[in-house]
Amino acid sequence: MSKNVTPYKESNRGKKEQVTEMFDTISENYDGLNRVISFGIDVKWRKKVVKLVGDTNPKSVLDIATGTADLAINLVKTGAERIVGLDISPGMLEVGKQKIKKKELHDKIEMVLGDGEKLPFEDNSFDAITVAFGVRNFENLEQGLQEIYRVLKPKGIFVVLETAVPTKTPYKQFYRLYSGRILPVIGKLFSKDNAAYGYLSESAAAFPFGENFNNILRKIGFIDVKDKPQTFGVASIYTATK
Ligand SMILES: C[S@@+](CC[C@H](N)C(=O)[O-])C[C@H]1O[C@@H](n2cnc3c(N)ncnc32)[C@H](O)[C@@H]1O
């Protein structure tokens, strides 16, 4: 389970602290690196998430692990009156806030420093909740999902975009080569943090994807759980309701 995969193997600190430090360290390079390591396809995946959320005409949307706010910014297109981006890393949030300011969206998107596993919101607060490439970083996945369930309104939509592992030949062999050998080298070249891109591929390999993740969502209480594999299975979009 992803719980035991941490960025800094020699450290005794908990996963949450290590993850926060790692994202603070890479925050300035994060957007550029994201485009490079996913060949720009992550932009297309986030658009699909926005479409799924937009189709439900939400009034309020919470984007957890919002990072540099790419998804939160795109969620403005849903027409929601209230968009909140929450993240545990002050560095990532700061980069996101600057982007929001540049786009003059600061009166539409609120950026909150907080922990996705202990949400600072009342029960049944949001019509829609999204998490893109975030749940894999939770220290306690089920606790985080329970919190999401708690603050989602009944009939609200929950959409998760997360890495997955291709299961079909030849994609699985190519993916193994890419994530095991190429990704860490790209990470080292572009990032100040050598551990970071080792962690990204290791945590992706350890994360329960597809039906395994669907079953965890069902266990928490979500209904209408579906997963839609993306781009040869390197990522998945999960939808669920309460
Ligand atoms: C890979 S980035 C994804 C950022 C953004 N959602 C995107 O699509 O680009 C993962 C983010 O999760 C955040 N994160 C990790 N654990 C968290 C937690 N427990 N609560 C809130 N955010 C968390 C990190 O700080 C980081 O910004």
Describe the structure in your own words.
The chain has 242 residues and is an alpha/beta fold. The protein has one domain: Rossmann fold, CATH 3.40.50.150. Helices cover 44% and strands 21% of the residues. The chain is built from nine helices and seven strands; from the N terminus they run H-H-H-E-H-E-H-E-E-H-E-H-H-H-E-E. It has helices spanning 15-26, 30-37, 41-54, 70-74, 90-102, 141-151, 171-190, 194-206, 211-220, and strands at 60-64, 82-87, 109-113, 126-132, 152-163, 223-230, 235-241. The protein has a seven-stranded mixed beta sheet, sandwiched between helices. Helix 7 (171-190) packs antiparallel against helix 8 (194-206). The chain is globular and about 45 Å long. The relative contact order is 0.16. The model has no long low-confidence stretch (mean pLDDT 92). It binds S-adenosylmethionine. S-adenosylmethionine (SAM) is lined by residues 16, 19, 23, 34, 64-67, 70-71, 87-89, 92, 115-117, 132-134, 137-138.
Helix-strand blueprint:
Blueprint: H1 15-26, H2 30-37, H3 41-54, E1 60-64, H4 70-74, E2 82-87, H5 90-102, E3 109-113, E4 126-132, H6 141-151, E5 152-163, H7 171-190, H8 194-206, H9 211-220, E6 223-230, E7 235-241
Parallel strand pairs: 1-2, 1-4, 2-3, 4-5
Antiparallel strand pairs: 5-7, 6-7
